[in-house]
Automatic annotation (TrEMBL):
Membrane-spanning residues: 12-35, 47-66, 78-95, 101-119
Keyword Membrane: yes
Keywords from the named record: Membrane, Transmembrane, Transmembrane helix
Domain of life: Bacteria
Provenance organism: Micromonospora carbonacea
Name of the featured protein: Uncharacterized protein
Length: 129
């Protein structure tokens, strides 16, 4: 009898770690947005609350997808890839706005996690091959 020691390949482990790290970072942005909403002197309250809710929802979604992938739920792969590919236009507009130091790493992160999620070891571990 042999034991499959590669039940959770390195590519899947790193994808989960990076998704969880993104969730934590976006959660910190959401906390900052809540603070900014509460301390702003003038604001368009509905827009501010919508942006804050979007950040909170994104953090929850990334964390949940990381957990689902950690439990080998194949259905979580496609939404996770979509969220990663959404970093490409965000990064592009950051570069256009003079924040290349942040936009380039965001684009690389999105492409890198997407590559981890479609790699053959991850595909096999999720039972998609």
């Amino acid at each position: 009898m042999t034991i499959d020691s590669d039940r959770k390949p390195t590519t899947l482990r790193w994808a989960v770690r990076l998704l969880r790290a993104e969730a934590a970072a976006l959660g910190l942005v959401a906390v900052w947005l809540v603070w900014a909403d509460l301390t702003a002197t003038t604001t368009d309250l509905p827009s501010a609350l919508l942006v804050t809710a979007f950040a909170l929802g994104g953090a929850v979604a990334l964390w949940a997808l990381g957990g689902a992938l950690d439990r080998h739920r194949a259905g979580a792969r496609a939404p996770a890839i979509v969220l990663q590919l959404m970093l490409l236009p965000v990064g592009w507009y950051m570069i256009q706005g003079g924040l290349g130091w942040l936009g380039v790493p965001l684009m690389a992160l999105g492409l890198g996690v997407s590559a981890l999620l479609v790699s053959p070891p991850t595909t096999r571990a999720l039972g998609l091959s």
